[in-house]
Amino acid sequence: MECKYLTYHGLLLPTISHSEDSLEYFEKFQVKDDDVFAITYPKSGTTWMQEILPLILNGGDFTPVKTIPNWDRVPWLEETRAALVMDKMTQPRLMVSHMPYELMPPSFFSSKAKVIYVARNPKDVVVSSFFFHQMASCLGDPGLFEEFLDKFLAGKVMFGKWTNHVRSWRLTDLGDRILYVTYEDMIEDLKGVVRRFSDFLGQKMSEETLEQVVSHCSFNTMKTNAMSNYSLVPQELMDSKKSAFLRKGISGDWKNHFSPEQEEKFSAAIKDEMRGSNIQFPWDE
Ligand code: A3P
């Protein structure tokens, strides 16, 4: 399949899911005060957030996560589906986005909408993305892992450089409108993180509901949920025989793929670009 990208403010966006119209819709979108955004760089836990957030906001009602595909349940604001589903959503609306902070729509900045930003170790992000490109033929062949690493570091991948994305969102002046978590926090203590989300969003949750949400959002359960595992997407667009969308769901898989030389080069490049930012991640220690 031919792979096409458009360029938006210097970022590559796949035309399978983005268009001039969808980006105009994104820019003109009227954000409301009780909207909730989960923001991620691709392959950092977006689908996981699309599962967790509706359960928290619905007080543990499992109907949406069992009946609505993740892309319509918690749509990407910049993607073509947004215009089709957003009007039907009730407040508080849940959305995801991969956009860097400075490209958010003007109405976002004057609103009180809340944001949860999920970051993931870039070494695991690039591995996850490499396998995702193998299964999602609409994104184009990633080439050899070595070649894909170079593309990733150069920002010649969808949504550009990881370092620009995390810097833009970690250095905002959104104050208590934004909550920062990592994918690794979620792996380590999902229950604790879901509790933090519900506190942040002002949603009380009983211990029983919390347990149910955590169990439903485990990797193995989500893997069997057709509304979240991308099995509804035709095989010619996403071929799960090449690699599952919910592939491994662990932290540290990079160790199985990076050579010592690749690790050294990658870490040095990321460290260099993060210098001066004062941002510390658990994987830096
Ligand atoms: P892997 O490819 O490392 O397995 P995104 O949704 O942003 O595209 O991110 C996809 C990554 O999140 C994949 O990583 C996927 O397996 C992982 N993921 C999704 N749901 C998860 C869950 N419940 N637990 C752990 N990881 C999950």
UniProtKB/TrEMBL annotation:
Pfam families: Sulfotransfer_1
Protein keywords: Catecholamine metabolism, Cytoplasm, Transferase
E.C. numbers: 2.8.2.-
Domain Sulfotransferase: residue ranges: 33-277
GO molecular function: sulfotransferase activity
Primary location group: cytoplasm
GO biological process: catecholamine metabolic process; xenobiotic metabolic process
Gene Ontology cellular component terms for the protein in this record: cytoplasm
Cell location: Cytoplasm
Transferase recorded as keyword: yes
Spans through the membrane: none
Stated family: Belongs to the sulfotransferase 1 family.
Protein name as annotated: Sulfotransferase
